[in-house]
Specification:
Layout (H helix, E strand, L loop, with lengths): L130 E2 L6 E2 L14 E2 L7 E2 L74 H37 L5 H7 L4 E4 L5 E5 L5 E2 L9 H11 L11 H13 L8 H10 L6 H17 L2 H11 L1 E3 L2 E2 L1 H9 L8 H9 L10 H17 L5 H6 L20 H13 L4 H7 L2 E4 L3 H15 L8 E7 L6 E5 L4 E3 L5 E3 L15 H10 L7 E2 L5 E3 L2 E3 L12 E2 H7 L2 H12 L1 H11 L29 H12 L3 E2 L5 E5 L5 E4 L6 E2 L5 H21 L11 E8 L14 E10 L2 E8 L16 H17 L71 E2 L18
Parallel strand pairs: 5-10, 7-9, 17-26
Antiparallel strand pairs: 1-2, 3-4, 5-6, 8-9, 10-20, 11-12, 11-25, 13-14, 15-18, 16-17, 19-22, 20-21, 23-24, 24-25
Helix pairs in contact: 2-7, 3-9, 3-10, 5-6, 5-7, 9-10, 14-21, 15-17, 15-18, 15-20, 16-20, 18-19
Length: 963
């Protein structure tokens, strides 16, 4: 307490003596008791004071001991401690044996003991009281009042009732004086903390003691004034030790910031990215990669391949990648692939150095390159590189190395249209991947970085040399082998495409259409690398094309087209499919895609009579039933004619005889009055004919024209061969198909139709269905000889010809009246059903090389027979099974009076019957619009249905088929 302050009276004086709890107020040795603690209360005697009129100040509290234990106090300086600041040393420490101690600073916020009531506000000392502290601080010995809310020591109440706070001493250490009321602020900082003191070194003497103010004001910044109007020390005023500590403090903070910026923050970002990104697994990528579709004949011989638009590719399994390929690609792209975690820090640093110095070479690992290829993202951005690195690390944690590498070599592009190393081996060397040598593998690995420069010999030689040297450096190739190695020999570019085979385009499209109907579109087939095992017999396919081409090569009518389809009755598989040439010349002499005539619906003519008979037999009627087979009959308001005398029969003509002679009047009468058109259509569909929308044909049921295969009824050659195969199989229907089995690139079976057992075609009861089919066959057997055709040696056969007559147009010459537009021969043995079609594009008047009308037996018949003879040559002999007759059995024997086609006699009959309008629906073709036709209309002549002997055809308008 400074001079002039009111003395605080001893509370114990009024109570009979000092308090028993006032041990800490005991006077120092040689000093008057309680003198320093007397308050100058009004009208009170202050009592004796300190010598020289100034109270001594208690030494500052000891500095906080450093970590690891308290430090021993400094040895006193010679002459004892002196008061800091000022010329007058003031009162000296008391004499005695004890060494002087550094003044103790009272602890802040100590709990207080309240004697009576709240403590009064302490009076500030009078101006000039006490000695000013160091550096312009408060006067020495002056204690500022505690801040509001702070806790003080016990309170003594003076006589007038105003309490006086008494500080509670801190816990005493052994041999340590209690803290004085006053405290010091060391080194000019609050609470005795030096910002430059790391508390491991002693202070300079000049900063050993600070001012002993009760509370210090906040320390001002450098150059700012404090509360006393003095400026804080600037950096220039700091001691060398303080400046050194200041510098290290700044360095430490910079290091902390760098660690946080370049280590902690990236680590946190890496973890967050790791759990948010998704990694494309090899299985996912394999599902999206396009591979060629491979076609196989029925004997498992490769037919050809269809390469996707993005190039050839063949996916390998991990166990299919040779070690020589692995080592070559490791050497070229990532020598540490087997050991790194998805990224190589040294490679990244080397890449950065190369970029800075203008060199070349990247830092991506094989895993990172796989991620880039799989995601198809090569944007030059830091975001892409960052996520690529994290994905690569995650991929290596979740996927075996072998799977990563295999997927990489499957997806990477090697040039020459080859995706994947397996396709590249065939593109550059024409060999399987298992046969590649180290020298050849090195070249393939070197091309990964520049596939577009595959034909640059300088570049390829440079890359090959680099990879070979890296293989030696990594001990994957001996120095002797390296010295003996020579640059590999490449096959000419594009020559590998010859190995794909020559798949008939029409067959390929029919296969694709069939699989698409099953849910396997072409994109999916490319994705799975489909292996399609077809039903096509290579010998049958070759003979089908030859038979059609040989019978058309001498024809002078450019409108004549041909097609042939063969189906195996035992499986339903298509053995041969020839729809004509794949390309034709347009009017400008350029190649264009041709029409697939095997899949183009046409009027079937009298070949539909087999289905007429089938529907008739299903009603329980037999081949012995009789009809009026005479010519020129009026049926349903139409005049129906036969194809001359040779196709006419008596008025009691049996159905069997009518089939042999192809009597139009019998079958038209049968369908019109007994069977009805809808039942004929049902019989055709049960046999295997597929009208739209499943197929392209149409079965017209609006009138009886379906009985003669005319009007709106159109059927494709493929459907006719399939329908007759149900007769050949004994009444078992097996849907025609091109695909026997489908597998993926790993030979995993997707579906297999080779075990298809079929189902009864014409009746749920298998025996009944077989009986119906056998009776149809019995009626068709004599037709072969009647059409001047022969069965193959040792084979029993049956069949039916068909002719569709040309419908004359306005302005046509009279010679067109006997022309035909479509001709057929559909026949079978127990092992093969064949439909041969020779006709034109729609309604065209066709003629042969002798300028005569064509018939079913003149071109189509020989085409059918040529194929059957060639295909069944040297095959085991076969006959049809015998079945019981249905209904009335036929016993009559047909007689014919003509052995060659006579000229047609145009016949017209006046009638008052109004005929329904003829069908104007033209058959459709896939690539060429149907020919327009004009219909002749007469008001006084009914339509006449008839045909040319021995074929069938439409007569005048409204025509149907004839026999």
């Amino acid at each position: 307490m400074g001079p002039g302050a009111a003395p605080v009276p001893n509370p114990g004086a009024g109570l009979g003596g000092p308090s028993v709890n006032d041990d800490r107020h005991r006077p120092w040795p040689g000093q008057e008791p309680d003198a320093p603690r007397r308050a100058h209360w009004p009208e009170q005697d202050p009592g004796p004071g300190w010598p020289a009129g100034e109270a001594p100040r208690r030494p500052a509290p000891p500095r906080r001991p450093p970590a690891g234990g308290p430090r021993p106090p400094r040895a006193p300086q010679a002459g004892g401690p002196a008061w800091p600041g000022g010329d007058d040393p003031g009162p000296q420490w008391p004499s005695g044996d004890e060494p002087p101690r550094r003044p103790q600073r009272p602890r802040q916020n100590q709990p207080s003991r309240i004697l009576d009531g709240p403590p009064p506000r302490r009076q500030p000392p009078p101006p000039g009281a006490g000695r000013p502290g160091p550096n312009g601080g408060p006067p020495q010995g002056f204690r500022q009042p505690p801040p509001p809310g702070s806790r003080s020591g016990p309170v003594r109440r003076p006589p007038h009732g105003r309490p006086v706070p008494v500080p509670i001493p801190p816990p005493e250490y052994p041999d340590r004086e209690p803290d004085l009321i006053t405290h010091a602020e060391h080194n000019g900082t609050t609470f005795g903390y030096d910002p430059y003191d790391d508390r491991y070194d002693d202070h300079d003497d000049e900063t050993q003691y600070a001012q002993f103010a009760a509370e210090a004001e906040p320390e001002p910044e450098d150059g700012e004034e404090d509360g006393q109007g003095k400026k804080k020390k600037s950096k220039a005023d700091l001691t060398p030790k303080q400046r050194k500590k200041r510098r290290w403090k700044i360095i430490r903070r910079v290091l902390y910031a760098c660690v946080g910026l370049f280590v902690v923050v990236p680590a946190i970002a890496f973890v967050i990215t790791y759990f948010t990104v998704s990694v494309p697994t090899p299985q996912d990528i394999r599902a999206t990669q396009s591979q060629p579709i491979t076609f196989y004949f029925g004997n498992n011989q490769q037919m050809g391949r269809s390469v996707p638009a993005d190039g050839d590719r063949e996916l390998l399994q991990p166990n299919q990648v040779p070690d020589v390929i692995k080592h070559a690609i490791y050497a070229a792209e990532d020598a540490t692939f087997e050991t790194n975690s998805g990224f190589d820090v040294m490679a990244i640093a080397r890449s950065v150095f190369n970029q800075v110095t203008g060199g070349t070479g990247g830092g991506s690992t094989i895993s990172q390159q796989y991620i880039k290829q799989a995601t198809k993202n090569d944007a030059p951005t830091l975001t892409r590189k960052w996520t690529e690195l994290v994905k690569s690390f995650k991929l290596n944690n979740e996927t075996p190395k072998a799977d990563i590498f295999t997927s990489y070599v499957n997806i990477v592009y090697f040039g020459r249209g080859a995706n994947g190393v397996a396709a590249a081996a065939k593109a550059y060397y024409g060999k399987d991947i298992s046969q590649v040598t180290p020298s050849e593998a090195a070249l393939l690995a070197g091309l990964i970085q520049g596939p577009s420069r595959s034909e640059d010999q300088t570049y390829t030689m440079k890359r090959w040399t680099y990879v070979m040297d890296q293989m030696v450096a990594n001990h994957w190739l001996s120095a002797a082998d390296r010295k003996a190695a020579v640059f590999p020999t490449l096959i000419p570019k594009g020559s590998q495409k010859k190995d794909n085979g020559n798949v008939d385009y029409f067959i390929q499209q029919r296969i694709i259409d069939e699989l698409e109907a099953k849910g396997y579109d072409q994109d999916k087939l490319y994705n799975i690398g489909a292996k399609i095992h077809t039903t096509i017999d290579p010998k049958a396919q070759q003979e089908a094309a030859r038979a059609v081409q040989d019978n058309l090569k001498d024809q002078t009518d450019q409108n004549i087209k041909g097609a042939l389809v063969a189906v195996d009755p035992r499986t339903g598989g298509v053995l041969a499919y020839y729809g004509g040439p794949n390309t034709v010349k347009n009017d400008k002499g350029k190649d264009q895609l041709a029409t697939d005539w095997a899949n183009t619906p046409q009027n079937p003519g009298s070949s539909m009579k087999a289905y007429d008979l089938t529907a008739f037999l299903k009603m329980g009627k037999g081949l012995g039933e009789t009809f009026d087979g005479s010519n020129n009959r009026m049926l349903g308001g139409r005049k129906v004619r036969n194809a001359g005398d040779s196709s006419s029969c008596s008025k009691q003509c049996t159905v069997k005889t009518a089939m042999e002679l192809s009597v139009n009047t019998v079958f038209y009468d049968m369908v019109l009055n007994d069977v009805k058109p809808a039942r004929v259509a049902d019989a055709a569909k049960e046999a295997g004919v597929r009208p739209g929308p499943q197929g392209k044909g149409k079965l017209g049921t609006a009138d009886a024209n379906i009985s003669l295969g005319g009007g709106a009824t159109t059927v494709t050659p493929e459907d006719m061969a399939a329908g007759y195969s149900s007769f050949a199989s004994g009444g078992v229907r097996r849907d025609q198909h091109f695909v026997a089995k489908l597998t993926n690139a790993q030979d995993e079976t997707i579906f297999d139709l080779t075990t298809n057992q079929g189902k009864p075609a014409f009746d749920p009861n298998n025996d009944k269905s077989k009986q119906i089919a056998g009776n149809v066959t019995e009626a068709l057997i004599p037709v072969i000889a009647h059409s001047k055709l022969k069965c193959p040696t040792g084979h029993q056969c049956a069949g039916k010809t068909g002719t569709q007559q040309y419908s004359p147009q306005d302005g046509d010459p009279s010679t067109y009246d006997d022309r035909n537009a479509q001709t057929w021969m559909v026949g079978y043995t127990p092992s093969v059903s064949v439909a041969a079609w020779i006709g034109g594009d729609g309604n065209k008047p066709l003629h042969d090389k002798n300028n005569k009308p064509i018939f079913g037996s003149t071109i189509a018949g020989p085409t059918w027979q040529d194929f059957m003879d060639a295909y069944l040559k040297d095959k085991p002999a076969e006959k049809f099974d015998q079945v019981a007759p249905i209904g009335k059995q036929a016993v009559d024997t047909p007689t014919t009076t003509a052995s060659r086609p006579p000229k047609t006699q145009n016949q017209t009959t006046e009638t008052t019957t109004t005929a329904p309008p003829p069908s104007t629906e033209a058959p459709s073709t896939p690539s060429t619009p149907p020919s327009s036709s004009k219909t002749l209309t007469t008001s006084n002549k009914p339509p006449v249905l008839g045909g040319e002997p021995p074929g069938n055809g439409f007569g005048p308008p409204g025509g149907g088929g004839g026999g």
